[in-house]
Known about the structure:
The chain has helices at residues 10-13, 48-56, 70-86, 102-109, 115-122, 124-127, 136-144, 156-165, 186-196, 215-241, 262-268, 331-335, 354-363, and strands spanning 35-37, 44-46, 60-63, 90-98, 149-153, 246-250, 275-280, 296-299, 312-317, 320-326, 342-346, 349-350, 370-376, 381-387, 398-400. By secondary structure, it is α/β, with parallel strands linked by helices. The chain has two domains: 10-299, Rossmann fold (3-Layer(aba) Sandwich); 312-400, PDZ domain (Pdz3 Domain). The protein is globular, with a radius of gyration of 21 Å. The protein starts with 9 loop residues before the first helix and ends with a strand.
Amino acid sequence: MAAGRRAAGLALAALLGAGAPLSAAPGPCVPGGAWVEPSAAGPRPRAAGTLLDQAAAGSVLLLGERHDSADHHRWQLATLQALLKRRPDLSLGLEMVPRRRQPVLDQWSAGELDEAAFLAALDWPAIWGYDVELYLPILRFARDRRIPLLALNVDRQLVRRVRLEGFEAVPPSEREGVGRPAPASEAYVALLHRLWQHHPFVPTPGHRLPGVEDPSFRRFVESQQLWDRAMAQAIADQRRRRPGALVVALMGNGHLAGGFGVPHQLRALGIAEPAWFLPWDASLNCDTLRPGLATAVFGIDPGPPAGLTLGVYLETHRGRVEIHQVAPGSLADRSGLLVGDVITAIDGRPATSARQVIDAVAAHPRGLPLVLTISRNGRGERREMVLPSPGRQPTAPASLPTS
Length: 403
């Protein structure tokens, strides 16, 4: 998530790079442009036509993404185009949009809004915040084909409230119609617990992680499940409204990987065999390509070599670029960047979105130090971080006067 989506699940989303790749060993297990089914015997190649025929014949197909990856969104669009040829009657669900914005989606699909009015009515920076240009090709495709769009999410305030107070503390009338989630599997709880230490809402980052029965962790799990359940419930409701149509939904990889999140909630709602596809970057670790990870994965062709990478998960929140995860051993970790830091400038140029930071870092010439200005501890404390070229020792951060 970005602006407006500071909520549970960000750590899980980073498991397969739903925000940005953290650390993974390169692996040739999924060639670029190929479809592979994870199996106990190893990656099983699948013919694209057969796989898409099967998906189009089903009731629900979920397409994963890393929100800031143009390659992932291009893959989603190509998959949608292939599915529409096979199943003209389909709906498209969007994690990016809270359900209160459903009337705006209806107007867009009906061709009643121009692009500027549509984005203004959605208030895209507030509800999502990732670069809208990444999503516009898909949104235009849906409008041009009059594909019904479905708002899958709930307001971030509800997710935050569950994280802070717990699901039971929120009256049913204030849950935006979301029912009680199906219990989380032990594997899901274990995964969330391992990743929780990287989450910005852990009270004492860097200290020993509390056990799985810790109340704050249990609320974290409940908020993640609320998010999963909300999306699953919206999909199931659409299936009831249009029983003969295929529902395709776009959402972060972390809600899908392993089937723990939205697929699990869909099964509990009576959709027995949801299918889900994940995009697979060459940088991902082949050890995670195990049975149950996904119905199938698609190998993303790598683009041109990137410049520097920080090794962080970034989120934009009302013009603040916040660090939500730091990969161990990464340039960011070695340089002293912390979860919760806010990047305010790069080489003296103001930064107001995660996309700006990602592009600026990738384009930064190797061999030259990268200077980040950050705000730390939420007290307006400003620091200048000088990040050296790879292989050199980081320079200690220099404190600047409080702004």
